[in-house]
Design brief:
alpha+beta; Metal Binding Protein, Guanine Nucleotide Exchange Factor, Chain A; six-stranded antiparallel sheet; three-stranded antiparallel sheet; 5 helices; 9 strands; globular; Met_Sox_Rdtase_MsrB_dom; Met_Sox_Rdtase_MsrB; peptide-methionine (R)-S-oxide reductase activity; EC 1.8.4.12; peptide-methionine (R)-S-oxide reductase
Amino acid sequence: MKRRALLQGMVLLPALPLLASQASFSLAETKAAGATVVPLDKAHSAWRELLTPAAYAVLFEEDTERPGSSPLNHEKRPGTYICAACYLPLFDSRHKYESGTGWPSFTQAIEGHTGFKRDFKLIFPRTEYHCARCGGHQGHLFDDGPAPRGERWCNNGVALRFIPEDESLPELRS
């Protein structure tokens, strides 16, 4: 961590409880931000029955998988990456790249399919993104990606499913 970022984070320590209370994700905020999808109103307990324990922990408890643990890191075929919970398409494989972080990374998401919130879990602010449809936590957005956009969408592999180009996308879960 850079020294300046550490010092800036230390300045925020007294305000951390206030900042954390304002960092909650709202599907209504996603819709107001111009999302092109209709948010689901489904209890997290219902998702638990459909997902593996690891996927549920990442998607609905905002856990993070170990770096280098996802088979999607090595996926190179053309296709679409969809939310592992509700099956909303989130990324086109043309925008996937090797970031060296140990997590699947993308230069951009499908427009209107993600919602955002500020995350202060590591003291300094980060931009967390979620599926705009089910609210499932996907990962974090950073500004250190490749040109021309400079974005790195760092995603938990367990929060995604890959659908090869020659297969049909599954119907959205409701």
